[in-house]
Amino acid sequence: MGSIIVTGSSRGIGKAIVDRYLDEEWNVFGASTTDISTWNDCSKYTHTILDLIDYKEAIDFWVDSLEKLEKFPQVLVNNAAVFIESPISSSDESWLENWNKTLSINLTASSYLAKKVIKIWSDSKVEGILINISSRAGQRGDTEEFAAYAASKAGMMAFVKSIARNYGKLGITAFSIAPGFVHTDMAIESIKTYGEEYLTQGLALNTIVPPEDIATLAYRIGTGEFKHATGQTFHINSGSYLF
User: Fold this and answer.
1) Is residue 243, in this structure, part of any structural domain at all?
2) How many domains is the chain partitioned into structurally?
């Protein structure tokens, strides 16, 4: 089996992706802002605390340590993200602070990590696979207080398209997954506040997406089964919008 890098691995979509790859006997190198004990007894999982606010030094150190492995991971999943409320009515200073933090973590840090990894893949002639976990917000927009989140997720999809166009002939492929509401801690809090009907209104199905569905898709992409769909965005949102 292969090996994979997953950011934001401690919970939600990231944890589901880690679980799926571990079930398939892959070696997983995960990272999140806090230490975790979920896979302490699993020899195939290695965890790193990674704070993407000061992303360059942290990513440089992490990638340098991964490069010392006998075999560098051939799949990267950029999943770590923040979801910060910043309405237009907020002060200029507050809006800019939250905008810059959101884009720095969600878009710039993920793209910088991908840059480092892709350089290693291309230099080593590895057929690597980049998977960016974007969002339906990047495709259709979001409420105005989460405009920065939507912009960051749209940027992740555009970055994937650029990588796919420029590195495909080197054997490197890139994909985006754009979930809608997913049954994670964040969605559960929304359900408590607004009720489940709020999250399912306008959907073609009467349930929101389980994180395991996204993990299955991420696994299939990571095995190389969708090579000829490079650059594409996979929408998984219970029929929230249809193309």
Assistant:
1) no
2) 1
Per the listing, tokens 């992706």 go with 17
* Burial grade of 17 (CB within 10 A; 0-12, 13-18, 19 or more): buried
In-domain check, residue 216: yes
Q: Are strands 45-49 and 27-32 parallel, antiparallel or unpaired?
A: parallel
pLDDT in tens, 28-47: 999 999 888 778 789 999 99
Alpha-carbon dihedral angle through residues 50, 52, 53, 58, given to the nearest 10 degrees: 60
What is the average pLDDT value for the chain, to the nearest integer? 92
Does any domain span residue 182?
A: yes
| DSSP per-residue letters across 80-105 | --------TTS-HHHHHHHHHHHHII
Contact 84, 149 (CB under 8 A): yes
SS3 label, residue 132: strand
CA pair distance 97, 100, nearest whole angstrom:
5
Instruction: Write out pLDDT tens, residues 94-123.
Output: 999 999 999 999 999 999 999 999 999 999
Task: Give the residue numbers spanning the domain of 25.
Answer: 3-236
Task: Give residue 186's pLDDT.
Answer: 64
Domain CATH code at residue 188 = 3.40.50.720
Is residue 241 a part of any domain in this protein?
no
3-state SS assignment for residue 176: strand
